[in-house]
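fwd from M.: "can u put these together and see what the complex looks like"

so here's what she sent:
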Amino acid sequence: MADVNRGNRPLSPHLSIYRMPLNGIMSITHRITGVGMSITAMLIVWWFLAAATSEEYFATANWVMTSWIGDIIMFVSLLAIWYHFCSGVRHLVWDTGSGLGQRRVKRSGIAALITAAVLSLITIILA
Amino acid sequence: MPFKTDHSRVHGLGAAKTGTTHFWEQRLSAIALVVLTPLFIFPFAYNLGSGYEEVRAAYSHPVNAIIAIAFILTAILHLFQGLQVVIEDYAHGRTELVLMITIRLLCSLFALTGVFAILKIAFTA
């Protein structure tokens, strides 16, 4: 690719009108769930710190973690971590160079979504 | 210059910084987390919501404590590696520098705090 006309060519796809394929949506969701779980990581560390400090402090942290807002955060985090887990395994497989055909990418994407949902359900049932 | 290809412009210069090290290290922490995540999540989800003594008793058990420490260290390392890539992609210049320093310090602080907390539970409960 030579430098002729560099930077002055029409751009495609126009992201605002381009219909993202499943895999494109899953890719950005992988990032969003990863970055979002920073908050979960901080909350969990705080909860452990409270359990290591005193009964009163633990009561506060545990109340936050099990309040309705805490429940929502933990539920979303649960979906996020299992999604990120399944999507991540898919990326590890891709890194070996296999499963990159169009059909297999689509199928493994759907499989990852179903597996993540099942793992979340199992965690909720067991917890 | 205008007629040079991308390839010929970089050919023979070697890796820009550390080559594939970051990529490789992130895959390694990912592989570790494939094992550690289920081992951590199920006991954690089970214990979340139980009382002070129960939680402390659970995490004073060596198996739970070691898994929790390994998970927190690896997960925060992986989080740091991921955040670094995201920042490199979307932030540039001074913002990039400030964010890099911030996430490095915060990740270190939270990793240290998590390990300290679980060790204290394990040794005092």
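replying to her w this: The interface with chain B takes residues 1-4, 6, 31, 34-35, 37-38, 41-42, 44-45, 47-49, 51-52, 55, 58-59, 62, 65-66, 74, 78, 81, 85, 88-89, 91-92, 95, 123-124, 126-127 of chain A (CB under 8 Å).
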